[in-house]
Amino acid sequence: MEITVTLVKELRERTGASIIECKKALIEAGANLEKAADILKQQGLALAEKKATRVTAEGVIEAYIHPGGRIGAMVEVNCETDFVARTAEFKELAHNLALQIAATAPQFLSPDEIPPNINSDPKVACLLLQPFIKDDNKTVQDIINDTIAKVGENIKIRRFARFELSY
Q1: 143 near 41, Cβ under 8 Å?
Q2: Cα(36)–Cα(90) distance, rounded to whole angstroms?
Q3: Could you read off the pLDDT of 80-125 as tens digits, one per residue?
Q4: Is 58 left (phi over 0), alpha (psi -120 to 50) or beta?
Q5: What pTM, to 2 d.p., does this model score?
Q6: What letter does residue 117 receive in the DSSP assignment?
Q7: I need a labelling partner for 158 at 20 to 30 A (CA). Which of 5, 10, 61, 117 fits?
Q8: Angle at 90 between CA 157 and CA 73, to 5 degrees
């Protein structure tokens, strides 16, 4: 089956992977767009796992204040280099994470932070396990892994805070 430029372009827009990676995935998937997207997703997960031990000392602090000024969130997102911290993909991730925190009010970053005496659903209480607000088919961790695959560096959320005015 022929791999057309249009097919490669569509997969690239969908996944954010490079043209070469998209073409290889389409060849492996026999020009099936869905299978190729799954292949790229698995490659992204493998890349994220491989980079997980790298030091993340650069990054940004992103703040979001909801219209009306009654809810706000701040998040520190770290990466390996200041070059990546200045990219549009990284800044978009940080902004989306701040939106997620403001909208869903997570209490913990990951399940290992939940104290043993607290009974709460990890998918609600933990930021990394929550369904992403802009695409509920993915978790926040999936979105981070996708960005890791795009920028080629390890990314971690160091800390976050959410503020809400109360009566």
Answers
A1: no
A2: 24
A3: 999 999 999 999 999 999 999 999 999 999 999 999 898 889 999 9
A4: beta
A5: 0.75
A6: T
A7: 117
A8: 50
